[in-house]
Amino acid sequence: MEVAKVEHASRVYKIGKVETQALRDVSLSIDSGEFTALVGPSGSGKTTLLQLIGCLDQPTSGRVFINGKDVSTLNRNQRADVRRGAIGFVFQFFALIPTLTAYENVEMPLLLSGQLAADRRARVSQLLEAVDLAERAHHRPDQLSGGQQQRVAIARALSTNPALILADEPTANLDTPNGKQIMDIMARLNRETGVTFVFATHDPRVISYARRVVMLRDGRIVANDGNGMNGVEAVSGELAASVA
Amino acid sequence: MIQILKLAIRDLGRNRRRSFFSALALGAGVALLLLMASVIDGQYRGALDAAIRLQSGHIQVRAKSFDDDKASLAWEDLVENPTQVAAQIASLPPVLAATPRLYGSGIVASGDQSIGVRIVGVDPASVASAPYRDGVVGGAFVTADDREGIVIGQPLADKAGLKAGDSVQLLVNTSDGDVSEQRFVIRGIYTTHTPGFDEGTVFMPLAKAQAIAKAGDHASVIFVLLKDRDQTSAVVNAVQAGGLQVKTWEQMNSVSLQTEQLSRSYMALLYLIVLGITATVIVNTLIMAVFERTREIGILSAIGMKARSVMAMFFAESAVLAVGGIAMGLVIGGLLVAYASRVGFFIGDVGVTGMLIGDRIYAHLTPRDAVTLVVTAFVVTLLAALYPALLAARMEPVQALRGAE
Prior knowledge:
The structure holds 2 protein chains of 2 kinds.
Chain A: E1 2-15, E2 18-31, E3 35-39, H1 46-53, E4 61-66, E5 69-70, H2 76-86, E6 87-90, H3 102-112, H4 117-130, H5 146-158, E7 164-168, H6 176-193, E8 196-201, H7 204-207, E9 212-217, E10 220-225, H8 228-243
Parallel strand pairs in A: 3-8, 3-9, 6-7, 7-8
Antiparallel strand pairs in A: 1-2, 1-4, 4-5, 9-10
Chain B: H1 2-14, H2 16-56, E1 59-63, H3 82-90, E2 95-110, E3 113-122, H4 130-133, E4 136-139, E5 149-153, H5 154-160, E6 167-173, E7 179-190, H6 195-198, E8 201-205, H7 206-212, E9 221-226, H8 232-239, E10 244-248, H9 249-252, H10 254-292, H11 294-302, H12 307-342, E11 345-346, E12 360-361, H13 367-384, H14 386-393, H15 397-404
Parallel strand pairs in B: 3-8, 5-7
Antiparallel strand pairs in B: 1-9, 1-10, 2-3, 2-6, 2-9, 4-7, 5-8, 6-7, 11-12
Helix pairs in contact in B: 1-12, 2-10, 2-12, 2-13, 10-13, 10-14, 11-15, 12-13, 12-14
C-alpha cells in the first residue's frame, strides 16, 4: 500500500530576485513499511523532498499524495491536520520543546489530537519504554543527552500512530554510539510495528540500515534502488565518491 | 487549554526577569490609575459632601420666587412662618435636621479694608450648624440670643488681620433695598477646611440676621439634611407645599455633578492612554518571545498545532502577564490608595468656581472604578498580544524550522 507519493514535484525558492531550484521534476512512491534513505550531498534536495512529503511545504509544481490524498493544494490548517494524524517527524536538532519534560513532549501530539488523559498516559508510557527512557520521563531536554533527546523525539513522532515517520539527518548531531543506537531503535520499530521510515542522510553508516536508497543530486533523483544491500552499497559508493 | 496555559507559564518562566518587569510595568500603570481614579473620585465626593453639608443641604424649601443667585430679601421672596414649616419637615422620619436660614450680602469693614461677604443667619444649636460650630478654631460660636456677635472664617480673619474679640463694622443689605450698619464683635473664627466657603461666609444668629436685614420672621430657605441621601425623592414628595419650591441637592449642585461626569470621561481616556503605553511593553516582550522561539513554533506546527492554537499560546502568555501585572498593581495601588484615603493630599485653596474644594483631598476608591480598571487593563493587555500572536501563527513551519538552524 502506498503511504506517500510525489508526482513531478518541483520546488523553487525565491530570495529577493534570486530563484533557487531545490527540486526538479521529482517523482517518488513510498510504500507502507519501507525503511528508506534519501541520500545525497548538501543542497541536493533531500530536506526539501522530506518537507514536501511531510506537508511542511508545498511544491511549486507537481503533486504530493499522503495515503492517497492530494495534499498539494491544502491550506495551512488542513496540512496541520494531515501532519498531526499521518506523519511523525524527527529532526536533526533534537527538536523538543525545552520547557516540557520528556513525558510532556511525547504527550503533546496526543493533546493536539484531543486524546483522553488515560489513553495519553498509557501511550506515552509505552513509547518511553520502547525507546528505553521510562526512567527519564520527567526530565527536561536540558537534563538529557543528545541521544536521549533524539529518542524522545522518536517516541513523540510515533505517539499518534502515524503511517509515516520522516527523519531529517537524525544522527547528524550525535556521536557514533548514539547514532547507532538511534538507527537501531528506528530499524527495530520499523520491523516490529511496520511503521514506514523515510530518513535523509549523507552518512554511509546510516545508509547501511536502509532497505531502499533514493539518491538525489542538484534537486533530481539520480538513483532509486530498492534491491537490497548490493544496490545500497552501489549507491553508497557513488555517494562516497560524490562527497569526496 | 490547561496545557496551553501551563506552556505559557513555563515560557514566561524562561526569562523571569523580563516577564517580571513586563508585568511590573502593567502593575505600575494599574497602581497609578487606581490612585488617580480614587483621588479624582475622592475630590468630587469631597466637594459634593462639602457643598451639601455647608451650603445646599440635601433639600431646600424656598419661596416660589426665590432666586438663589440674587439672594433677594424682599418679603415675597422669603418663606413665611419658617419655624413652623421647618418643624413640620423635621417631623418626617428620614429628616436629620430642618432649620430656617436667612441669606444676605454685606461688607465687613475693618480699618481701611472692606471685604464683601455672604451673611448667613442660622440656628446655632441646629445639627445643620455643626460643621461651622465644630470648626471653631478661636473664640466660640455665636448663641441664638447674641445680638452683637458674628463668626467669620479663618481665611477672612487672616486676610483682614482679625481675631476673636475684635470689632468690625458690618454693612448689610436689607429687605427694603436699604443698607443697615452695625458694629459687631467677632465671637469666633471657624474653618471647614474649604477655603472657597470660609473666606466669604459670615454667620450670625437667625434672629439677629432677620432683624438687621429687616426680614421680620421670614427666612430665605428651610435647610434640610437627611439621614440618607437616597431618601431625597421620598422627602421631596412629602414636603411639596403650596406656594413653596423644593430644590434637591442634585439640582443645587448640578455644576459639580456635571464636572464629575466630564472628569469620568477624561478618566476613561486616561485609562486607555496609560494602559496603551504599558501594553507596548507587553507587545515588545511577546515579540521578542516570538523571535526567540521561532524554532519551537516551527516544531509545534510540524507536529500538528494549528495556527489558532499558536495564537492561543501567546494570548495565554499575555493573560498570565496581565493577571500578574494587575495583581501587582492592585497591591501597590491598594497601599497608595489606603495612604491617600487616610492621610490625603494637602492642596490648599484651589478656588474652583461653582465647587467647594477642601484644602485636603482624600482618595476614595469605589468598587466600580476598581472593577472597570481591572477589566480594561486585562482587555488592553490581551489586545496587546494580537500582533505577536498573529506574527507567530502566520509563520510557515518550514521557514520557522529553517530560521532556527
